[in-house]
Amino acid sequence: MVGREGLMPEDLDLCFEKLMVFGAGGGGIEGAKMGCGGVITEWKDIPMELLLRIVSLGDDRTVIVAAGVCSGWRDAIALGLTQLSLSWCKNNMNNLVLSLAPKFTKLQTLILRQDKPQLEDNAVETIANYCHDLQDLDLSKSFKLSDRSLFALAHGCPNLIKLNISGCTAFSDMGLAYLAQFCRKLKYLNLCGCVKAASDKALKTIGYNCCQLQLLNLGWCENVGDVGVMSLAYGCPDLRALDLCGCVLITDDSVIALANNCLHLRSLGLYYCQNITDIAMYSLAHSRVKNKHEMWESMKNRYMEEGLVNLNISQCTALTPPAVQAVCDSFPSLHTCSGRHSLIISGCLNLTSVHCACADLAHRAASALPHPAH
What we know:
Leucine-rich repeat, LRR (right-handed beta-alpha superhelix); disordered N terminus; 374 residues
């Protein structure tokens, strides 16, 4: 009944006619009667619970069409709708947001990812004015947005947990720092390509205010240096994933701070960070046994489960095999074997001898096989 393109108003009318026929025949909705004794004769008579169930079977376009059927439907959907994606909208997304945000005030997740820039600051300001429960917001590739949007979100959406502003190149570090002072519940922040926003100054504010941060993407933010990363390491000890790919200014000091303070780190991207040396690798390897004796008795199971599972050191040409092998030996979940690459070393021809635990197991298995008789 509901296709990928969503329902048009005439489709809704046809569905309603079928519902009436079904009800009149004494089917699942007995005599098309509601629990309160009324009879479903118009769209507005459908109980809210049934309406929300019907709408949930459709896509986001269907939701928008359904909300325009009548005021009762609009009010019911507005109360029940918590997630919405408008990424399918190729034109006029800005006007659509201006129209919908005042109606759908209970939204917790809003995806506004764009193939071409459509959103303007007035749309984000409208979101901030009405959607105060918002926790997950995707504004990626919104090239037209300025710091006005960040200022509005800081005041209107303090409960943000996930924010994706990758590719929003017009944001400044002042705007980002201002946001971090109010949105202190952030756990996921994607700043990939935000060259002007992601500076050491902004990262210091994030590290000071957003202590719950777990995932941060700083890919290709060329102004990020050791001061910013070290501030994150000291202020956000629960970091699980950090992408520093293309952050060409960072040195071993950043990795050492992360190794010493972010003991839950699972994924680290250092692609093209050519100032990284063996010192950084050995600090990661040694972090595996940091405070080992104290942790072992009380957290044995959890300790065994934690540690790096992804490490990208492609184009880090200063690294040598012994240092990288030490990391691989310390973290059994890092793999170099075919089909399970989680230690990425492309562009480092001198590291081809590095191998994961799987290679040792395969070698032992082969050695245990009986040799054929001559």
